[in-house]
Amino acid sequence: MEISVLIAIVGVLVALTNIIVEVVKKSTWDKLPTNVLALIVAEALTLAAGFAYFQIKTLPIAWYVVVAFVVVGFMVAYAAMFGFDKLKEIMNWGGSDDAG
C-alpha cells in the first residue's frame, strides 16, 4: 500500500471520527471528555477499517498488524483532536524537508 493511499485513508478516518464525535458528544457532554470520546471512536473506526481491509484482501492478521492498527488509531485520534495539518507536520508528510 502506498503512503498516499494511507494518508487518504487516515484523512477519511479523521473526518468520520470528527463527525461521529460531534454527534455523540451532545449526549455524553457531562459524562465523558471529548478527547476520550475521540480516542475511543478513532480506535474503533481504525480497527474496524483495518480488519475489514484484511478480510477483503484475505490477508492473515498477526499480532503486529493489530498493534499497527492501534498505532494508526492514535494517529487518527490526534489528527481529529488537533487537526490533520498538525499530524502531517509531525509525520513530515508535507513533502518539504527544508527548515526555512
User: Helical content, roughly?
Assistant: over 70%
Q: Oligomeric status of the shown chains?
A: single chain
Classify the beta-strand content into a percent band: under 5%
Structural class: mainly alpha
Mean pLDDT: 84
Please give the radius of gyration in angstroms: 15 Å
**Which shape, going by the Cα principal axes?**
globular
Explain how this protein is built.
The chain is an all-alpha fold and 100 residues long. The protein contains four helices and no strands. The protein has helices at residues 3-24, 34-56, 63-82, 84-91. Helix 3 (63-82) packs across helix 4 (84-91). The mean pLDDT is 84.
Topology:
Layout (H helix, E strand, L loop, with lengths): L2 H22 L9 H23 L6 H20 L1 H8 L9
Helix pairs in contact: 1-2, 1-3, 2-3, 3-4
Output the keywords.
100 residues; mainly alpha; 73% helix; globular
